Amino acid sequence: MPKLRVFSPSFNSHKFCVNCIDSVASQKKLPDEHFFIDDNSQDDTREWLSSHYERMQGNALQKGYKLNIVPNGVRKWKLLNLYEYAIRCDPDDVICVLDGDDWLSDNSALEKIWSHYQDDNVDYVYTNWKYSHNNEVGISKKIPDNFENWDPYDSPWITSAMSTFRVKQFLKIPIVNFLRWDYKWFTMGCDQAYVLPIIKQIMQVDGGYDKIKFIDEPLYVYQFTENPNKPRSQNNDGGMRIDAHNSVTFIKSRGYIK
After folding, report:
1. Inter-residue contact 188 to 231 (CB < 8 Å)
2. Contact (Cβ atoms closer than 8 angstroms) between residue 3 and residue 94
């Protein structure tokens, strides 16, 4: 029986980490596991997690799912943490990626996503999102019906921060797609480093996108302005923005590597 797993990578998530974990606990459809990894934060994230730990852990136990809060001793960044988690899961399991400073906007979010995975042929589901600071809805949209003229690497980004996938699709991706120009794991542009290959290889194998479903509802809240560790936050010094831009440009120009 496939399991539903929520994976939350977190760095310097401060108070938002509690919003993230509580939003999962409030779901009508609970996951089998919520794996929250603190990636060697340098702020007071661990103090926030520690002060709420007993309540959050007790809540999860009472509701019958596993909450694992794991502190990293060194920073590995999102993509490598995701890979190390995925290789421990069963191929038919579903992973929902929920960043540790974001949260689910609707208590039926996982229920709506999971309903699509009742079809064994569905391997990737994504939703729209909204910004935390103004509730403006994001840019996610359905893959065009005339998909013959559409390629994920050549087209604007239309998927979302709320990516969910069967583990087997993620593990099909050759690891070289996860590596930068210097052959180190991507630290920025991580979503595009794994989402674009998943979409591309589904198209290459199936000749279409029937295995991909889009939910046109903002089921995910993207915390955008208050965390300076977001590349496009108004509070960071611009270095992360440049790194993110360079990474995404490299990913899209290089394309999918078999």
Report:
1. yes
2. yes
Percent of the chain with pLDDT over 70: 95
Strands 94-97 and 124-131: unpaired
pLDDT band at 145 (very low <50, low <70, confident <90, very high): confident
**Tokens standing for 257?**
């590597």
Partnered with residue 213 across adjacent β-strands are 125
| 3-class secondary-structure state, position 5 | strand
Q: Which two tokens stand for residue 214?
A: 């889009």
**Which residues lie closer than 8 Å to 80 by C-beta, 6 or more apart?**
178, 185
Give pLDDT, residue 206: 87
Burial (Cβ within 10 Å: 0-12, 13-18, ≥19) of residue 54: exposed
Cα–Cα distance measured from residue 174 to residue 32, given in angstroms and rounded to the nearest whole number: 28
Spell out the domains of the chain, with CATH numbers in brackets: 4-253 (3.90.550.10)
**Model confidence over 194-228: pLDDT tens digits?**
999 999 999 999 888 999 999 999 999 998 777 66
The answer for residues whose C-beta is within 8 angstroms of residue 54's C-beta and 6 or more apart is none
Give the model's pLDDT for residue 186: 98
Distance CA 123, CA 77 (A): 25
- 3-state secondary structure at position 216: strand
Q: Which two tokens stand for residue 173?
A: 């991706």
